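User: Can you help me understand a structure? I only have the sequence.
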Amino acid sequence: MGFQTQPKEFEYMAPANLEDASKLYLSYGEKACILAGGTDIVPLMKRGLLAPECVIDITKIPDMSYIRLEDGVLKLGALTTIEDFRESPLIEQNYPALHMASEVMGSTIIRNLATVGANICRASPASDMAPPLVVLGANLRIFGPKGVRTTPIEDFFLGFGRSEMAAGEILCEIEVPASPDKQAFMKLKRTKEDLAKINISTAFNLSDDKCSGIKIALGSVAPKVVRAEKTEKFLEGKELSEANIEEAKRIICREINPIDDVRSTAEYRMEMSKVLLGRVIRLALKGGW
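Assistant: Let's start by predicting it. Here is the structure, written out as tokens:
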């Protein structure tokens, strides 16, 4: 018979702006956690796996939930929910990889609570929003004690649950500088609401049947989201023929390091990474589901 650990008491703070939130976060350090949706930290706290002394709720801070295009740059507030992504015509029509990721992430209840910022800051290798944002060349705007700084999302992830976020820093905005002609996202999972066994995204331009600027990113196959740079280098400037895709499948196996866990085996992840690479490229070429 199982049991549930009684959550410890904690202080709850709901600052009105980023400056106050950053100061609180800096003062409590590792004893605090940020509440930006709650789909991750609330279950962990209920199970006794997370016991912060202070929960800093940033959901009351204004103007942190938006999807807008400014001078050709897509700007996303960190508190924008996954359901907002799924329902946005701008995302669906111009950033299909992000739309595809939002469609297969959890249940309707989860999508209405989960935010893109929290999904990224968790630094989970199974994050669904990270691979498409990586292949789209997204930059993160991070507010902290020294003001706002910008970092490429690809440099943000350091390992399982680890990021380059410094003390007192809070993600406030995501910028996507361009939208390649062809892009797609795919996810393999056990159940509708489960985390990914594997996920993969690609984005590229196509001219005279040859791809350029191709990027490929995978999740759940290493301690952090992986850019398949050797595979990209092989495919760059080539036709995406079946022969070239087959060779790319062989190359991608040298770029990932999957493990056995409760969701899958390393062997299965290795084999399915090859399968999904072919599928996601064909899906991007087709222009969607």
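Now, to help you interpret it: The mean pLDDT is 93. The two ends are 44 Å apart (CA to CA). Let me know which part you'd like to focus on.
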